[in-house]
Amino acid sequence: MDTALVDERLLSHAGAVSALHESWGWMVYSVDGRQFACEFTAGERARAPYAGRHLLSLKCDPDRILELRSEFPDAVLPGYYSDGRTWISLDLDAGLPEDLVLELCDESYRLVFAKLAKRRQREILSDRGGTA
Question: To the nearest 10°, the Cα dihedral for 42, 47, 49, 54?
């Protein structure tokens, strides 16, 4: 999967920013200081099944996680270094459908944005002049 396309999609949302977490080598995406995605390659010494994989971790609805893991067991993993009940890690080199990956990027942002205070949501949207 083209990471430039993923990066563009993640940053297309109101208030979304990215920063490199230098000590980990992860690109972290957040809105109002709350992480909604991170892209990285797990080290070769990471535990199975993550070791050496190019991953995108996203917030996800728990029911959807069960469906995705059932349909794509080798490509959709429990969230790496996060709560596997509400986060997934997608193997970006496993051939997942591009539209699915981009849809999950949007869903992750929406889930995190919805938890922000309504006042902050309005401020972020008015700064952007658009919608989440």
Answer: 0
pLDDT over 80 at 50, yes or no: yes
The answer to whether the CB of 88 falls within 8 A of the CB of 58 is: yes
Distance CA 45, CA 52 (A): 8
Give 57's contacts (C-beta < 8 A, 6+ positions apart): 37, 38, 39, 40, 79, 80, 81, 82, 87, 88, 89, 90
DSSP H helical ranges for 14-97: 62-71
Crossing angle, helix 98-114 and helix 3-11, to 10 degrees? 30
pLDDT (tens digit, 9 = 90+) per residue, 19-45? 998 877 889 999 999 999 999 999 999
Residues 6+ apart with CB under 8 A from 4: none
Amino acid at 78: P
Inter-CA distances, 68 with 75, 90, 97, 111, 127, Å: 9, 10, 12, 17, 34
pTM of the model: 0.93
